[in-house]
Write a structure and sequence with these properties.
Layout (H helix, E strand, L loop, with lengths): L3 E6 L32 E2 L30 E10 L3 H10 L7 H4 L3 H6 L2 E6 L22 H8 L3 E3 L9 H14 L3 E3 L5 H4 L1 E7 L2 E9 L21 H13 L4 E7 L10 H11 L6 E5 L7 E4 L2 E4 L4 E3 L11 E11 L5 E14 L5 E4 H6 L4 H18 L10
Parallel strand pairs: 1-7, 2-10, 3-4, 3-13, 4-5, 5-6, 8-9, 9-10, 10-12
Antiparallel strand pairs: 3-14, 7-8, 11-12, 14-15, 15-16
Family: Belongs to the CapA family.
InterPro entries: Capsule_synth_CapA, CW_Biosynth-Accessory, Metallo-depent_PP-like
Pfam family, one: PGA_cap
Length: about 400
Amino acid sequence: MSRRAETAPLRRAAPRGATRARRTWQRSCTIVAAAAATLVAAAGCAADGPRTVSPAASAPARSAAQPSASGPRQVTVLGAGDVLVHPPVWQQARSDGHGRMDFRDILAGVRPDVSAADLAICHLETPLAGPGDAPRGWPRFAAPPQVVTAIRDTGFDDCSTASNHSYDQGTAGVADTLAALDAAHLHHAGTARSAREAGRTDLIDVHGVRIADLSYTFGLNTGLSLPAGQSWLVDITDVHRILTAAHAARRAGADIVLLSLHWGVEYQQQPTEEQRAQARTLLASPDVDAILGCHAHVVQPFQRIGGKWVVYGMGNEIARHEDPIAASREGVMPRLTFTESPGGRWRVTHLDAVPTWVDIAPKIRLVTLSAALAGHPSAARRAVYQREYRRIGAAVNSLGARVPLA
């Protein structure tokens, strides 16, 4: 399928009581000795096509990715793990909203880091319930559509949507999900409502820097398959197809091409051989700049391959599994700083990781562990936060990457 490219400007509605300011990244890179010339990659693999997003008239634009008086342009990209809305999560949202579902307080703990990035990408793992439909949990999810408002107000700009749950609610679920994302002025990649939509390459204009986010999944939920002739509904992983899409995005003008891959084995903290092989092949392409992985529900390592980065698994951003083991409450938000090099190519000059944790009592709340530790928690809670901070750091660097934690 041939692809057409469209560029949509990055704008978003302001979160409650918040103003947006772009963080200037001046920390020196401590990842590897030669990191100044490092290429990094972030999320992606799926939606082939650019959409024109109509930004909210009141949405304040972030500061442009401009060069300093003596330096090149920079842009920061932040990834995040699975947004997996189990029944206890939406019950908490209903309580917070006094009868109306409001997820903003649940996600508020990560807002400062998310909103500071020039481009923040979430992974919306499940479809959304249609208007008037009741939400559903495992095994075939339909998340309350109100979560999209919170995703936007937390500071996310874009959601990857290709996952094994993408088709849980059939063709209607795909359409309902994308309609809700469009209404919230959020970019999306990984699923489509038509062959025409799937054939477009969505170039997100981040203040003049064109970024493509491609999203793919290894497959669908047990017992589900796409209708004959409608494979465009969900982008299923095929390495050759991904490389073709990445090349098309580059030819269409993408400065940075990110892959969001839903892959691996659930609750396994080391990548499979298949993940490693796919990462090597994909990152060997000049058309792929980074990979952001999801699906395992636990944090998996970061690895530098040929000067580029793969994040094998970002864990859960928000979830409340029936048996909430510690590892499934852990998450990590990689922050990638891309710098324009001579010749116009963009390379990562800094990568760090923001460890997150889902508190489940007394209320379900997503926190960044560094901020939680700085907030004078009780001795017992401090011990938990310190333990989780160390565990996440060990997982991130278990393949020897030496990525600093925020």
